[in-house]
Design a protein that fits this description.
By secondary structure, the protein is of the alpha/beta class. The protein contains 16 helices and 15 strands. The strands form 3 sheets. It has an 8-stranded mixed β-sheet with strand order 10-9-8-11-12-13-14-15, sandwiched between helices. α9 packs across α15. The longest helix has 19 residues, at 317-335. The protein starts with a helix and ends with a helix.
């Protein structure tokens, strides 16, 4: 009994120091610029959250509040389920130097009962659990996760680069993934193309990849095109997607991809590997300052200068590293986060374990994106590459 009285006395003392306001008053202050923070746990928010509230669980408040609000003078309102944890959250904020803090009395239950605006969560229980660690990132949250679920990414190639990229895009919750590849699984693929399995040798790579992605995340849509990218189908295969990941192993396909992504105003996440080295960049025609693939390679190099993996060999983990970097750039583009590799070429040397960044400006005389480089058609691009490679 005395323990209960002590707790109530302690809470009463907290109310004196922190101050409590009604949900209606909190709503009015929020409209005037106060920051409302819902400090409940994620599983408590299934029924909804106060409209416009910042979602930050009590346990992460000290770690993350300064990233969201460095101004110690801004009015901050804390809200929990019933009004007790919000007092503790308010005390924490006061200790951190925030000078204008109040707790919402009665918490979310009272807010809801008084008919104040609520944002109803759009993620179901499965999604909330599946993407829980990603949802904890303030830069992602529920809004970002929903954006990932609406995104569509096309991968050219279900091999060394496409395999790790597809796995992590599926795991992250990209809603629609389209795989383009006309090849079949060979045993020599398995040391680097981790999306396939020994039992699927001889199976179409697209179908093998679909099986793995479905097992990893049955919530996403996987579309297959078991065909070679050509002048006659490149635009139709890419249309309707948000971006493309280049996992091609030949220059004609890459040049077609570069031309089509410029025509469709679609970002292209480039990647390439050879022996112990790899490269990654982003070509984004939506940006005026972005170079294109042909700013990097105006003409295809001779076959002897650019052998593929079957000819030159490759360390098995290298495509995994480069493919994961491509997946990272793709997620950043979808979420509109950070600084994508536009105008920069990131090179990786596995033997030296070094990354090196090279500036890659747009070339005004580029045969792909220059002002005096009119598009002559995909057939012309295909013939040009076939003649030089």
């Amino acid at each position: 009994m005395s323990e209960s009285l002590d707790r109530e006395s302690w809470l009463a003392a907290l109310r004196q120091r922190i101050g409590e306001i009604s949900p209606a008053e909190a709503f009015a202050r929020q409209a005037q610029g106060a920051l409302l923070i819902d400090v409940r746990e994620e599983n408590e928010r299934v029924a909804g959250t106060p409209a416009g509230a910042l979602l930050m669980s009590r346990g992460f408040l000290e770690l993350r509040i300064e990233d969201h609000e460095p101004d110690r003078d801004r009015p901050i309102l804390t809200l929990c389920a019933s009004g007790r944890r919000s007092l503790l959250a308010g005390e924490t904020l006061q200790r951190m130097g925030y000078r204008n803090v109040a707790s919402v009395a009665g918490g979310f239950e009272r807010w809801k009962n008084e008919g104040l605006p609520i944002d109803v969560g759009q993620l179901d229980t499965d999604s909330a659990e599946r993407y829980a660690r990603q949802l904890r990132l303030p830069q992602v949250g529920e809004a970002g996760q929903l954006k990932l679920g609406r995104a569509s990414v096309v991968l050219l190639g279900a091999g060394g680069l496409g395999a790790p990229a597809a796995l992590y895009l599926a795991a992250a919750g990209i809603g629609r993934i389209t795989l383009i590849d006309d090849d079949r699984v060979e045993r020599s693929n398995l040391h680097r193309q981790v999306i396939h399995a020994d039992a699927r040798v001889g199976m179409a790579k697209t179908e093998s990849a679909r099986m793995t992605l479905a097992a990893l995340n049955p919530r996403i849509e996987v579309n297959l095109h078991t065909e070679r990218l050509r002048a006659g189908n490149v635009e139709s295969l890419l249309a309707g997607h948000d971006l493309v990941i280049d996992g091609a192993d030949n220059f004609p396909a890459r040049y077609l991809l570069a031309a089509a992504t410029r025509r469709l105003n679609m970002p292209m996440v480039y990647g390439a590997v050879e022996r112990f080295t790899g490269q990654v960049s982003v070509f984004d025609p939506r940006r005026d300052d972005s170079p294109c693939y042909r700013c990097l390679f105006p003409e295809p190099p001779a076959a002897a200068d650019a052998p593929n993996c079957s000819e030159a060999g490759v360390l098995g983990v290298l495509p995994g590293i480069v493919g994961l970097l491509q997946a990272t750039e793709a997620l950043k583009l979808v979420l509109e986060l950070g600084d994508p590799l536009v105008g920069r070429l990131l090179s990786f040397d596995a033997l030296g374990m070094r990354f090196r960044e090279t500036r890659l400006p747009r070339d005004p005389a580029c045969p792909g994106c220059g002002a005096s480089a009119p598009f002559q058609g995909y057939e012309d691009v295909e013939r040009f590459c076939a003649a030089l490679v």
